[in-house]
Design brief:
The chain has about 450 residues and is of the alpha/beta class. It has a domain at about 5-15 and about 65-110 and about 235-450: 3-Layer(aba) Sandwich (Rossmann fold). It has helices at about 40-45, 50-55, 70-75, 85-90, 115-125, 140-150, 160-165, 170-175, 190-200, 205-220, 235-240, 245-255, 270-285, 350-355, 365-380, 385-405, 425-430, 440-450, and strands at about 5, 15-20, 65, 80-85, 95-100, 130-135, 155-160, 180-185, 225-230, 260-265, 290-295, 310, 320-325, 360-365, 410-415. Strand 6, helix 6 (about 140-150) and strand 7 (about 155-160) form a beta-alpha-beta unit. Helix 4 (about 85-90) packs across helix 15 and helix 9 runs antiparallel to helix 10 (about 205-220). The longest helix has 20 residues, at about 385-405. Bound molecules: pyridoxal-5'-phosphate (PLP). The site of pyridoxal-5'-phosphate (PLP) has 21 residues, from helix 6, helix 13 and helix 16.
């Protein structure tokens, strides 16, 4: 056997710093704004996040050290392997070389623990005793429950979007195994939840609603010992995920590849995409010829159809206004199986990268995604999460293009998570029960009409 399937790094080669894209963006980031339209200062975010994470959120430092206490936990699964998808390449008959970074090897099964461990660590350093959060597919809630267990001394409470809570009972069990508490959102525990339930008793829930509940639960704790934790979207989350791309660069260098031709990630709030692609965006900004593609569902077309605007991160408008691509904070998505891709907004850093022409975006229907997931499972062996199948579908499109063009391109994608907790989705697809759904332009326009009068970003 001469060919090398997996490229490993030694634990000592795990990156010691994260990469922050913010200082390298061609045009500056727009600041978060308060309800009065003025920029939100760090002190205004203090009831929601600990100050050490707020400092990272607004940092203009290009490189930020990863504390030893975080690195000691990350080595439970990091550095993650970079894998050459030979079997998939053969099935497609493509001259392209396809590599994927397998983030599914983490204890929670996705990239999410990269930031969960960091956030739990910084909160503990700051003296916080309890974290609240939301979760869509359950990946983030389980990642944070795992991280709180590893860090120790921090409780974790998760508001899980109702439709996923019903579809994915095993995720709740994982959270509880690690000591977290998981309830369906909207719930009767918060004012935001009660208001939504009064209006829409049968709502499937949404990430926007669950965020409102989790933020409310944090800021109304009279002891002051609770903070909120977000699994995507924010700058510090993108930062923590860049360990993925930084490792991938070292791994590609080991097989003589300086830069891939194409880098692909699926996009929900933007964090796994950013984590893999931002270190390559740095090279692109400095002249490298790399195509960077974000893949999203047609049913939640934040990058491909939504405008770049100021909008709230949640339904109850508790968060500041963020400059991002947004379908409108009232967006309630169709219950597609890629629960983690059903968020109305996109990370401000990813939205800015799109605005600045550093990346492209494609939309994919869930049938194409499940088809891609099945092909990947049969060839490479690992069953991908429904979210991850969007990146695989986009990769397959690029590999077929390389075949048509006769080009031996290197394609790198982020295998953001395994799908062993998502088999209900596969079962429905195999039973012919899943349908494609495209979010109508008229609905987007109706949502955005409610934002008239909001300030506009640059
Ligand atoms: C496996 C997996 N991939 C991707 C995502 C999308 O999130 P993000 O865009 O922040 O990476 C999620 C979110 O839950 C997920 O669980």
């Amino acid at each position: 056997m001469t060919r090398q399937k997996k490229i490993f790094l030694d634990e000592s080669e795990m990156p010691k710093q994260w990469y922050n894209l913010a200082p390298d963006l061609p045009s500056p980031l727009n600041p978060p704004l308060g309800p009065d339209g003025n920029p939100v200062g760090p002190e205004m975010l203090a009831p929601v996040f600990p100050m050490n994470l707020i400092e990272q959120e607004v940092s203009q430092e290009r490189w930020i050290d990863i504390p030893e206490g975080i690195r000691e936990i990350l080595v439970q699964w990091r550095p993650s392997p970079l894998i050459r998808a030979y079997e998939l390449e053969e099935a497609l008959g493509t001259p392209a070389k396809i590599y994927y970074k397998n983030e599914g090897v983490s204890p929670a099964g996705s990239h999410k623990p990269n930031t969960a461990v960091a956030q739990a660590w910084y909160n503990k350093e700051f003296g916080i005793k309890k974290l609240t959060t939301e979760t869509g597919a359950g990946q983030w809630g389980s990642a944070l429950s795992y991280a709180c267990a590893q860090i120790g001394g921090i409780e974790c409470k998760v508001f899980m979007v109702r439709v996923s809570f019903d579809q994915k009972p095993f995720r709740k069990m994982m959270m509880e195994t690690w000591g977290g508490k998981c309830i369906a959102s909207p719930s009767t525990e918060t004012q935001a939840g009660r208001d939504i339930l009064a209006q829409f008793p049968d709502t499937p829930g949404s990430l926007g609603i669950a965020i409102s509940e989790a933020v409310e639960a944090a800021v109304t704790d009279p002891t002051g010992g609770t903070r909120y934790s977000l699994g995507s979207v924010l700058n510090h989350v993108m930062l923590h995920q860049t360990i993925i791309g930084l490792e991938a660069k070292k791994q590609l260098a080991k097989v003589g590849i300086k830069n891939p031709d194409v880098v692909i990630g699926c996009c929900g709030g933007g964090s796994n995409f950013a984590g893999l692609s931002f270190p390559f965006m740095y090279d692109k900004i400095h002249g490298a010829d790399i195509q960077i593609i974000g893949a999203e569902p047609f049913s939640c077309p934040t990058l491909t159809k939504a405008p770049f605007i100021y909008d709230n991160g949640d339904v109850a408008q508790m968060t500041p206004l963020l400059a991002m691509n947004s379908l409108g904070h009232n967006f309630v998505p169709a219950p597609i199986h890629a629960g983690g891709l059903r968020y109305h907004g996109m990370a401000p850093l990813v939205s800015a990268a799109l605005r600045d022409g550093l990346m492209d975006a494609v939309a994919v229907h869930q049938s194409e995604c499940f088809e891609a997931g099945l092909l990947f499972s049969k060839t490479e062996g690992i069953i991908p999460a429904p979210e991850t199948t969007h990146a695989i579908a986009a990769t397959i499109r690029e590999a077929k293009k390389a075949k048509e063009e006769g080009k031996e391109k290197t394609i790198l994608f982020n295998f953001s998570g395994h799908g062993l907790m998502d088999l209900v989705g596969y079962n429905k697809y195999l039973g012919g029960e899943l349908h494609d759904y495209e979010y109508p332009e008229s609905e987007i326009a109706a949502n955005l009409k409610k934002l008239e009068g909001y300030p506009l970003p640059k």
